[in-house]
Structures are given as C-alpha cells and as structure tokens.
Amino acid sequence: MTDLPVEEMSFEQAMAELERVVGQLERGDVPLEDSIALYERGAALKKRCETKLKEAEEKVAAITLDGNGQPKGTTPVEGL
Amino acid sequence: MPAWLRFPLARRRARVGQITDGAYMSDLIDDPQPGQNLPEFTVAEISGAVKRTLEDQFSRVRVRGEVGRVFTARSGHLYYDIKDDKNVLACTTWKGQVSRLSVVPEEGLEVVVTGRLTAFGGQSKYNMNVEEVAVAGKGALMALLEKRKAQLQAEGLFEQSRKRPLPYLPEIIGVVTSPSGAVIRDILHRLRDRFPRKVLIWPVAVQGEACAREVANAIDGFNLLTPGGALPRPDLLIVARGGGSIEDLWGFNEEIVARAAARSEIPLISAVGHETDTTLIDYVSDRRAPTPTAAAEMAVPVRMELLAWVGEQQTRLVRALSARVDQRGQRLRDLGRALRRPETLLEGPQQRYDLMSDRLPTALMRGVERRRVALSEASGSLRPGLLARMLGQDQRRISNSADRLAPALQRAALAKREALGRRADRLTPRVIERDIAQGRDRLEALTRRLKDAGTRQTTAPRDRLEALMRLHETLGYKATLKRGYAVVYGDGGQVVGTKAAAEAAAGLEIEFADGKFKIGGTTRKSATKPKPPEQGSLF
After folding, report:
1. CATH number for domain B144-301, candidates 3.40.50.261, 3.40.50.2000, 3.40.190.10, 3.40.50.300
2. Where in the cell is it found (chain B) (predicted)?
3. What is the CATH topology of the domain spanning A6-74?
4. How many CB contacts within 8 angstroms connect chain A with chain B?
5. Whether B115 contacts B77, CB under 8 Å
6. Which of A25, A26, A50 lies at the smallest CB-CB distance from B310?
7. Whole-model pTM above 0.80?
C-alpha cells in the first residue's frame, strides 16, 4: 500500500491502488472493520480516478520561437 | 605544371586561341622581350583574371565525388576535398554556410556538392565554395546511415535498458512536427478519440537542410521547460513526420537528432515515415510508432474504457463489501443457530438440583434413622445379665483352674520326691569307704617298698664313697704335706715346680699341711715349698 495521499496520486497510481483494494476486499481475508475502511479507501480512489478522467480537456497550442529558435510563447491552434 | 593550373589555363588558352602551347610558354617565360605583341600581366592581374574566369565559367556547378580529408578550422570554416581515383578538388564551406548544409561532409561519403569555383591568388590555388552537400544516391545514404548506426550502437545508445516507460496518462504531450499537414491532424484526432489531452506543438521543418537542427533543438527545448511553468514541460514527446523518400526523411537520420532524442529526459515516441521506414531516431527513442496515429495510441489510454473500468471497480467494490457483510451476517446467523438457548443450558443442572434438593431432607432423616436402628440394635443386647453371665463363666473357669492347682502341685512334688528317693537309695558311703581302705593299703605297701628301695640304693654308694674317701685321704697331696712336704706357688698362684721358675717369680707362696706361708713380693701366696716332682703324675 502506498503512503501517498489519494488526492496526490496520479491516475495510474490511483488505478493500481483501486485494483489492489478491490482484489483484497473480494478475497475477503480482511476483518469486517477493515473491510469498511478498505471500501472507503476504494471509494476515494474511484473518485480520484473519475476526477482524472473528467480532466479530459483538449487544449492545443503551438510554441512560438524567437530568432534563435528559443520558445517565447504559445499560440492557440484551432481547426486541426 | 601543377595540377591545379592545368584546367583554367587550358580554358584561357582556348579563349586566347592565337598561339600554340609551346610558343605561348616559350614567349612568356623564355623570351619576355619588350615590344612583343603580347599583353603583359602583373601577378595580381593574372590572379584576378584567373579568378574572374573561374567564377564566370563555373558560377554554379554540381560536382560528384568522394569526400576526402575534412578539416574544420578554428574560425568555423570547413575545408575538405572531393576526389575521384586520380583528381582532387579542394572545397570550402564558410562558417555561415555550414549550418545550412543538409549533410555535413564526412570522409568516405559519396556526395554531390553544389557551389562555384573560385581561386585564391595568395597561394595560386583554386577551389570550390560549396553551399550545398547532398549524399549521392540511395546506396551511399544507406551506407552512411549504417555507419552512424554502428557508431551510436557502439556507444550503447540503442540499449533496451536506456528506454524509459511511457507515462500511463500524460498530462501534457509535446509534439515535434510540422504545424501544418496531415501528421499533426492525425495525432490530434486520435488523441481526441481516445483521451483529449493538452498538446504543445513545437513547429519544425520536417525535411530539408534545416530539419535536423530544428528537430534536435525542439527536443532539447522541450526538455528545458520547467514542469508546471508558464510553458509547462510535457511529460511525453512525440517526434512525428509523414512518409517520404529517404532523402526527405534524412533529417531524422542525422546524428544531432538521434543524440537529442537519446539525451531527452522526457519519454519520447518516434513516428517518422511509414512503417517500413526506419530512421536513426527510431533506434534511440523510447518507443517507435509505425505511424503518427499509432504514436497517439501509444501516448494515451482510451478514456471510455477507463471510465468503464472505474465503474466496474465501483461495482466490484460494492459487491465485495456487501458480500462480506452478507457472508458475515449469514455466518452470524449460523453461529447463532448453533448456539443453544440459554434456558436449555440450565435445564440439566436444574433437574439435578431439583432431584438433589428433594433427596436432601429425607437423606438426613434416613441417615439418622439408620444410625438409630444400629444403636438400638447394639443397645438391645447390652444387659447386666449378659455381663454377669460372662463374669460367671470366667469365675467358673478360674475356680476350676484353682481347684486343679493344688493337687497338680502335690502330684508333681510326689513324682519328683519318688525320683529323688530312687536315686538316693543308690547313694551309700560304703563304696567310698572301701575305696579309701584299699587306697590306704596300697599306699602303705608302696611306702614300705619305697623306704626299702631307698635304703638299698644309698647303702652301696655310701660304702663306696667312704672307701674312696679313705683312699683319697691317703693318696692326696695333703696327706703328703702331713708327712713334711710343701707345695710352692708363684705370685700368680701357679705351682712352681722348677728352680728356674722359682727364680723368675717375683714372689712365692708355700703351702704346708697346716697353712700357707708367703715369701717376698706382693704376691698373695708365699709358699715356697717345692712340690714333689711326681705330684702331677700321681693324679
């Protein structure tokens, strides 16, 4: 079990942890009290995953370069 | 004649066209007489003329050959030779031109160089200023590519261990490609289908001489961005280009591009050309996508699938928990059923208690009763008469015994007395007396015999003794002494029988019949009476 708070987990970490929690709960080898704590953790991880999935926002920008080929800003790219 | 002069002079000669080789040379060198009808050049003039001629005639030529020795001067200018099996052409590319070369000349590379010929009067040399270098033919390009591959592989840049895993869900994707064209559109479309993300496009030329430099610069540039900055650093890079000829894709075979990709800290997907085209960057990238679309697929997972997965996890979570609760509830009920009712727990003991508490009072009474019976049984037979009877019996036994006691004693005494009488009869003093009388008689007889024997035994010796005594008296020297003889002893007590001995003795003692007489000395005996000479032999 990773010590990272659920809110700081990447999608992949939250996903792996959720899978582990579900598996553990399904195996049923945890005491009932722990099962409930485990369920709550699973719910939090699921929420985290959903949040990350809802962040599916598309934003495309092109980098603008100065005379030396160094980036100086971005311009939004539309219509591609 | 130096090789480098041959060609321009030949041209010059062709233009002059009036004189033969030999005449011209002999006129020019051997006989430079004033007044001849030939123009006279200064060195500067002829140098300038040669330079002009060369530059006019060969202002833009393409020359094919193999690159020979390459030398980059400290000034940044590039000097190299293009050669065939016999000839060499000196080439120069100025510093400002070098960066525009699509292919930097390498020794052994078959190239076609484009530029103009010129001369350098200061050294009487001509050379070619090259503006463009192109690899000559596909075979040569492939050979160059193989050479670079071998070199980078030897450096370990293709190692699988160098390849980093791609992030599962990158937040920002940096794309290095042309901002216009199908490639970026394909990538964006596929990203949109799967999982819309933030995309930063770094526009580059994807072919031509600027391509390699710009692509390398873009890869490095993305790596230099700071995560979460105004220009946020991507967590995944895609370097993409559509299909094209090997020459079109050549920029991605350049070492600077491969090295930029290799040192990129951001995981990098290369997607250059079609599936069959493999460029140098593909070997060093972390993943190689056959097409730009495939690169987009590698970059992000499918959002809908993930949402479904999350939903499924949610379902499993709920099901697992409720299953756990149900399972435990069931188990509880099972266990509860197995648990006996509390009242039944007490039934047995209660029953035993009742039984016992019933029996307790009667048990006491019964116990007392039983003892009372025993007591009365015992006390019933306990009467004075019984005791008296028992005493009577004992008394009778005693008196009985007592009655028998005295007669028994008398009887016993009588018997003993009779036995004594019998023995006493045999005990009389007569026998002893007789024995004594006999003993006495024997004693007296023996005493008489003893006296007689004693007398008999002493008489004869005494007689003999008396005879001997008488003989002794008559024969002894003492009797001789009585007849007037004397015995002489020395002072030592020894008998002195000779005159010599008497003279030798210190003192003499003489024994007479009535005593001893001492003469001289200190000797005890003084008898000097000479012994008779036969005295000794007499005894």
Report:
1. 3.40.50.261
2. Cytoplasm
3. Helix Hairpins (1.10.287)
4. 113
5. no
6. A50
7. no
